[in-house]
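User: Earlier you gave me the apo prediction for this protein. Now I'd like the version with pyridoxal-5'-phosphate bound, so I can compare the two side by side. Same sequence as before, with the ligand SMILES added.
Assistant: Got it. Here's the input I'm using:
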Amino acid sequence: MKNKKSFSRRTFLTGTLTTGALAITPKSLRSNENIFSYITRHGPSSGIAKLNGNENPYGPSQKALRAINEASKKSGYYVHTSGETLRSMIAEKNGLTNDYIILSSGSTAALTNIALASIKKGHILAPDLFWDSTANLAAGTSQNKLKRLPSNTKHQIDLGIMKNSISKDISLVHITNPNNPTGSVLNNSDLKKFCREVSKTCTILIDEAYNDLTDNPKSSTMIPLIKEGRNIIVTRTFSKIHGLAGLRIGYMIAKPKLIKEIMKFGIIGNWTTNHAGIAAAIASYNDKNFLSHSKAMINEGKEMVMEAVKKNGLSALPSKANFIFVNLGSLNADKFKASMAKRNIIISGIYRNHKNWSRVSMGKISDIQRYVNAMPEALEEIS
Ligand SMILES: Cc1ncc(COP(=O)(O)O)c(C=O)c1O
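And here is the structure of the complex with pyridoxal-5'-phosphate:
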């Protein structure tokens, strides 16, 4: 762990990056990108450490920025062929055809449609904590409900309890993996087994917004089960590791019959996207250098937060996403948020009734450092 950290700090300073199989040498940098160009120059006003949105401050990549510039010139026209290009790239990577993929304005738009389509037929079953905005919205339009599993102290999703909670009146099982706000990831084979069994009777939605941040994204995705013909929907987004949150490009993957049903509940697809976002997504989709660099910086930030948490006598859940859920013990997360805000550090407050848990998103290393430095004072202030 220690080696990894000193290594990534050094790479940040020298501009030489090695992550997993990828090695960027100064030579390849000259012919490709300057690593320093990944350091953010945009975003929140200076002096504000924005650590509440699970964004990637290193985005957009240089390739994406160039593509955005070029694509903006087409803005007088609706998106058509470039949307098809992106769909084909996603289809090809996953061994599917384009009709399995629908683009949307962020994954929020697709998730909203999925929730509305499901709530019409029955209840939505989900864990106690998950990214619940769209399921909540849909539940507000219907007699059917968003049913949550009971919470547990570890904030883990118990697939056994989930399976036993499924009845005829549940139309959708909604799982976020890795989960938000906990950062926890489910065991791949347990989740696959659960999905194969449960999808025989009920549609399953796996929101994989943070999949690229897991240790092994390929084995932790449930997309291959869609290829098997199962009743499973996966959503993905360019808002997280791709650093394109403000360009609003996401997508869902499911078998075409399921997609047709879901599309009745709101207009999604190429039509609802934009040239700049699509061009940036295309440029970023296979940009291994940028993605590895972002992941390395995010992981470095997480190590810094974990260390600070320990130093301050607290604990946190291990996270496979770009945020950390910190257990403040007896202290109140809204008060901690306010105390940090006084110091121009923006973090999240209380989630549901978990008053002592606080989520901090990764940001620029300098902003994480500010969070780490402010932690003792802020904790002291609310104690
Ligand atoms: C798990 C999860 N899913 C989906 C979203 C929506 O993101 P977007 O609409 O930008 O794709 C978020 C946003 O934070 C999220 O955390």
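For your comparison, keep in mind: The CA atoms of residues 12 and 297 lie 8 Å apart.
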